[in-house]
Amino acid sequence: MDSDQSSVPNCFELLSAEPLLVVLIGPGGVGKGSIARALVAHDERLWLSRSWTTRPQRASENGSEYHFVDRATFERAIDEHRFLEWAEFHGNLYGTPLPDAEGKDVLLEIEVQGAGQVREEHPDAVVILILAPSMDDLEQRLRSRGDSEEHVRIRLSSTPKELARGHELSSFVVVNDDVERATKEILSILEELRQQRRNPSLKD
């Protein structure tokens, strides 16, 4: 498999036209996972997809953050068309399994590259870019996760490109200066979007 290869199967017809498809993106260390878990804890209408990855599990993780698999298992799932989107980022594969969330809004927490694939196939997706208050804050968060110095350096070097692409893709931008506050802001955004779907005249 080519290192920069990525793919989206022709499967978006599996998504209902009614529920929202909400995509959280942002640089590594910005707190997407914490916000995603807080969102589903506060909103029973959201279904959070648990992404797959070939990267090693961190010592600070309990195993619920991703479905951690080896590369052969991931590549077999690609061949079986089991992903909504997948991409390779810094040498590791990341992918979103096909949703199983009938009647609920689907929440994805994925890399910017994957979000581009989702947006291309599903233009109505609600893409929310999560930012850290500053680059210094982002660097501190990366280091607090226990990542190696090399990994932190690689992550920081790719951040400007990720941010530029993230702003192009995003429908909304939320600063994660506090998880609770950022979660409430996103919940308000989602409620407004739901109201607009129930009453399209509110868009005017």
Regions with pLDDT < 50 over 5+ consecutive residues? Answer: 1-17
Q: What's the architecture in CATH terms?
A: 3-Layer(aba) Sandwich
Total strands: the figure is 9
Tally of helical runs? 6
Could you describe the largest sheet, including whether it forms a barrel?
Answer: 5 strands, parallel
- Count up the domains: 1
Strand order of the largest sheet: 2-7-1-8-9
Question: What's the overall geometry?
Answer: globular
Overall residue-averaged pLDDT value: 86
Span between termini: 47 Å
Specify Rg, calculated over alpha carbons. Answer: 17 Å
Percent of residues in beta strands = 15-25%
CATH class identity = Alpha Beta
What is the CATH T-level topology?
Rossmann fold
- Listing every helix as H and every strand as E from the N terminus to the C terminus, the arrangement reads EHEEEHEEEHEHHEH
Kindly state the percentage of residues in helix: 25-40%
CATH H-level homologous superfamily name: P-loop containing nucleotide triphosphate hydrolases
Structural class: alpha/beta
What does this molecule look like?
- By secondary structure, this protein is of the alpha/beta class.
- The chain has one domain (19-195): Rossmann fold (3-Layer(aba) Sandwich), CATH 3.40.50.
- It is built from six helices and nine strands, in the order E-H-E-E-E-H-E-E-E-H-E-H-H-E-H.
- The strands form two sheets. A five-stranded parallel beta sheet has the order 2-7-1-8-9, sandwiched between helices. It has a four-stranded mixed beta sheet with strand order 4-3-6-5.
- Helix 1 packs across helix 6 (179-198), helix 3 packs parallel to helix 5 and helix 4 packs across helix 5.
- The longest helix is centred in the C-terminal third of the chain and has 21 residues, at 149-169.
